[in-house]
Amino acid sequence: MNTANFPWLTTIILLPIAASLLIPVLPDKDGKTVRWYALIVGLIDFALIVTAFYLGYDFSNPDLQLFESYPWVPQLDLNWSVGADGLSMPLIILTGFITTLAALAAWPVTLKPKLFYFLLLAMYGGQIAVFAVQDMLLFFLVWELELIPVYLLLAIWGGKKRQYAATKFILYTAGGSLFILVAALAMAFYGDTVSFDMRSLAAKNIALNLQLWLYAAFLIAYAVKLPIFPLHTWLPDAHGEATAPVHMLLAGILLKMGGYALIRMNAQMLPDAHAYFAPVLVILGVVNIIYAALTSFAQRNLKRKIAYSSISHMGFVTIGIASFTDLGLNGAMLQMVSHGLIGASLFFLVGATYDRTHTLMLDEMGGVGKKMGKIFAMWTTCSLASLALPGMSGFVAELMVFVGFATSDAYSSTFKIIVVFLMAVGVILTPIYLLSMLREIFYGEENKELVSHQKLIDAEPREIFIIACLLVPIIGIGLYPKILTQVYDATTVQLTERLRDAVPSLAQQITPEVSLSAPVIEEGVR
Hints:
Layout: H1 8-21, H2 32-56, E1 65-73, E2 78-84, H3 89-105, H4 113-132, H5 136-145, H6 147-157, H7 162-189, H8 198-203, H9 208-225, H10 234-241, H11 244-269, H12 271-298, H13 302-321, H14 326-357, H15 373-386, H16 393-406, H17 413-442, H18 448-453, H19 461-479, H20 482-501, H21 504-507, H22 518-524
Antiparallel strand pairs: 1-2
Helix pairs in contact: 1-2, 1-4, 2-3, 2-4, 3-4, 3-11, 3-14, 4-5, 4-6, 5-7, 6-7, 7-9, 7-10, 9-11, 9-12, 10-13, 11-13, 11-14, 12-13, 12-17, 12-20, 13-14, 13-16, 13-17, 14-15, 14-16, 14-19, 14-20, 15-17, 15-19, 16-19
């Protein structure tokens, strides 16, 4: 078989979706068969992702690879176009890895197991499609379809307020998606030719005024998914009601869709508008970091505390995207992958802890580390990764964003000093609320009432295996970041050059430092 011509990405997207359609006819009464079926399908699809990456991906090529295009609706110029470059390939691999582990994490699910795993596999293919499709209209369709499994997974298997959380999620995300459709149609019909192909759209010479409106529309949609303050409020509610495997999908993959789209559409396709909006992204990123960290302090619910921690960490992504440096953009990509791994591990441990204590309130815990030593050790290790301990992936990612922004010649010294100081405050706040959380759960005297009513058994082999699988790349990337950065470095370097070309003073290097305040932009950008 000629592997060069094999439709890798189409197969990777359609396999879990097709496999999910067979679940209703599986002979299964107690859910044991379907869970093995879903896990095997996930492993096969992840193996295909790794094989495609190994055989068909060139680190030195910044352009689309593994590209496939088939006419779908020719009358609308709608094509099934998929491909992978440095922006999408790491997130495709992350999706396969996290979703396969989520299938294993869902082992205890007994309520409607066939429907649960059907939605899980359908979501698997849909999320990979979001990162792989290269047609704007097709992107909108898979973005919308991917929301349905998430809604049902929240509404059926969630907690007491699951209907509220699921409804709020669908209203926020579906409402934001309308801006994607309007902006996509405006870009497609602009100029003499009508095209939804992303590369053709990026090559169009769109007037600056229209670019600004398009950028704002995309930003609203992706700010909901990332999430960015003040469009973030659906996330704590969703996490507050979700089960452990759904947590892993939300934190590990769903938030990354917003960051990926912000880079792909806003930065890559609308570079002139990006020069105007970059300071706004930086400010929003700082607000995310500080506001969410402080809010996390006040949370007594374990799920909501980790949820706000996720919002804080994603602030580094927006700052990296707006840095106008290779290092900053590399850091944003690394932060997305790193947080996907760390967030999935923390939320899985939240689920494991709740299964034993049957409470999420920190006030009702205390001293459980005496009986759950292995879970205590896993919690401690994953929390240290989240607070950016050197040797972990989070440290490298945040350091790259720090240095990338601090060395950027696109902002005034005063602005950079203020932003870097506030980012540092956020970094200091993170270990305080995470370590205090560990103290309240595991240290001190045992809660006699909790211990008397609950059987606090330690971690089982399945749970240890899942956390070990997540810690291997977290520590591996932390010790040797190049193992990941080389995957997307060529693409981010090319994109940074395009962004800097949008500001002539940066492209020509007339001065070492240019403020992106409105007066300078009006003089420097057409």
